Amino acid sequence: MSRIARPGEPRRRRYASNTNRMLSARIIERAIERGEVPEGSDADAEIDFLVAPIHLRLLLVGGRLDAALARQSTEATSAAARAGVFAPPAR
Fold it and tell me: Treating both helix axes as pointing N-terminal to C-terminal, what angle do 67-82 and 43-55 enclose, rounded to 10 degrees?
């Protein structure tokens, strides 16, 4: 049997998603303030890069989520951010 959304449920889910994204963006903004990542880095792109492997494994591959995947995703995102991958191109 398919699940039918209750009135207002999609709005609540969208709000929760936006709230989580805003909180995540704040973490990246603080890293910019501390000089850990370049000024102008795209927080949304960084968040997408961080969660993409998790979504891929969970939604497409159907594999297990584990600490190794979380560590790899976090370390790869952190290294890319420090290297300026998510910053605007230098002029």
Answer: 150
Please give the Cα distance from 47 to 24 (Å, whole number): 7
CB atoms within 10 A of CB 9: 11
Structure tokens at 64: 């297990």
Residue 7 CA, distance from chain mean position: 28
Residues 48, 45: Cα–Cα separation, whole Å = 5
Q: For 39, list phi and psi in degrees, rounded to 5.
A: -55, 140
| 62-78 residue pLDDT tens | 888 899 999 999 999 99
According to the model, what pLDDT value does residue 91 have?
72
- Residue ranges of alpha helices (H) inside the chain are 9-33, 43-55, 67-82
